[in-house]
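User: For a benchmark we're assembling, each entry needs the component sequences followed by a predicted structure for the full assembly. Here are entry 17's components. Please fill in the structure.
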Amino acid sequence: MTDATANPEGPILSADGVPLKRSLSRALRRQKLRALALIAPLLIFVILTFIAPIADMLFRSVENSIVPETIPATAAALGEWDETSGQAPGEPVFRALYEDLKVAVEEKTHTRLGSRLNYEMTGASSLFRKTGRRVDRMDESAPLKEQFLDIDKGWGDIEFWQGVKRFSGDYTAGYFLGAADLKDGPDGIESKPESQQIYMLLFQRTLILSVTITVACLLVGYPIAFLLATLPLRTSNMLLILVLLPFWTSLLVRTSAWKVLLQQQGVINDILVYIGLVADNARLELINNATGTIIAMTHILLPFMILPLFSVMKTIPITYVRAAKSLGATDWTAFWRVYFPQSVPGIGAGAILCFILSIGYYITPELVGGTTGTFISNRIAYHISSSLNWGLAAALGCILLAVVLVLYWLYDRIVGIDNVKLG
Amino acid sequence: MKLEYALGAGLALAMAGAASARDLTIVSWGGAYSASQQNAYHAPYMAANPDVNIINDESSNEAVAKLRAMNEAGNITWDVVDVVASDAIRLCDEGLAMEIDPDTMLAPAPDGTPASEDFGELLISECYIPQIVYSTTVGYRTDMVGDTPPTDICAIFDLETYPGKRSLEKRPINNMEWALLCDGVAKADVYDVLETQEGQNQAFAKLDTIKDETIWWSAGADTPQLLADGEVVMGSTYNGRLFALIEEQKQPVAMLWDAQVFDLDGWIIPAGLPEDRLKAALDYIYFATDTQRLADQAAYISYGPARKSSAPLVGKHAELGIDMAPHMPTDPANATNTFLYNYEWWADYRDDIDAKFQTWLAK
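Assistant: Structure for entry 17:
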């Protein structure tokens, strides 16, 4: 070490006098760029086909531009209106509404606005449809408020106008509130009436059932994986095919098979009645409820538990257990103190796979879940494909994503993600 | 090398095919229903227009959501879509289906009656061309009801005479109406009552009496399967599914036509099709919804044609050879007590009541 390079005051310099740190990072930058260029196609692909659509979909949970875009003048005129006055808006608002509707009917966007507002206020859909049909026959020179009220009394409803004013901004928290069983009423945020509180219940049920399914997978899968890992290769390979075979079978076929097995006149109940364990008039209800969901989903997710467990267990030398036994350990102690701790990374991987898959599962709960075994994803699917309330579906999806991320973080804190091994 | 040749030749063939034949993508429900359309509409249309190639897409179930997504992406790949009436109203409201003028775009009846009169009140939306009338009705196991087979809809709520499970659709529509009808509400008042909170509570209270004994279905095939397996003593489903169960599969099941709820199935054309595809779609619609074609479909499936002029032309089942007229939901003997489902009303109340219904179910 010479005086030229060892400068206790300043940074270490390279031969050309540039700080070593900078010249090193410059040399590395080119390498990093090259690496980036190599993964760029995949990165762009993932961003375009995966991240961007998801972000776009989730953005809908707050987006509300349809109201200010369809009735801009009305939204502005409503700013003047005092919603606490106890009176419906006056002529200026209705004149603005008339102008807005003329354009909207031309562009056929008024019914779309009606559907949007109907999510918040029952009746808005037909109000806009009906009014849209007659708007071109209205008399511009006469007072418009009365003509609107003639078409439908709904236009005089103060709560309706309060709602329109509340939802006249470009963004709304309404969907998120709805997803949390809350609503933005005239007196601020309040919970929905009990007869409409469903989402929190479903989130809770989704989490509880997912944990149950994961635990069931572990209890069933662990011995199987252990057997597979300890048997001679020939036999274990054959058994492994038995694990994989259902994995390759269509999901719908497997779910339908469970219907045949589990229903009250099904195979399992028939056998139980035949051997006299269950009376014929008291057959077990194994399907169309939470039990059905747990049984069918445990079966469907089992390979996701067995495979990581198996690949981790394969790497555990069985000689350790023998050594423990030769040193005086009982079978149980040898397993619990020596074998089991080494298989924990497999449990970690299997559990997180099963849990995250089951939390977003849709088709099986729909088919065998009845009313008490359905998940939040079934409601999300309903709002996407049937009610077209994509805003609410996006808000529910956001919450589900957030819950999963929080749980993942907790999992990392408790188990440690470094302790998870897929093989 | 050989493989490359084969690929190249295949590609060339495919391109040649695309160039000579115009593709027409028609979306429908699949299964027996699509088969009936294939026989009654698609096959004769392709025979008459050899340059048209009809592609069947079985996505009607999620048609509303997919059409919206296509519309947002600006790339509409469907030409004609088969949907139920409530979905057609939704699509029309959202501006996703184009408006149809029945008198200029559809064929008149053979006697010259314009299409708007021939379809009559079934033209429930500006965008909708109805094909068939189907009904949601109840089927029951003849061997599980003893000597007193049910004769009216309220048998569903009668656990004493007809113990056992029943199956109902996992949505409020139809169930709420039936509950009120069987709780003493007059048919004409059902929707007025259902508009009020008390009326909704009344319907839920009535449904509460059978909630534990009910399997809630979401796929049309569920009730037929449950009936065939003896899982339920009775259940609601579409009349065509029950026809297949009774007449084709010979199961010990009979139909209860009482208080059957009429619904429609028909075509919409997506909004925003380019000129040439629009012309092709309209040409197909003109052909496929004429009087004879609608009557033909009834030879393959037991749904009633939506045109008045088609009813006298309904013949025998194509394979079973039985007269189809007595199996139509619109047949006078079956239609003594029918319930007309109020589309406009449900368009308003669906979001609200569905939330309540699902909450009620989940608890």
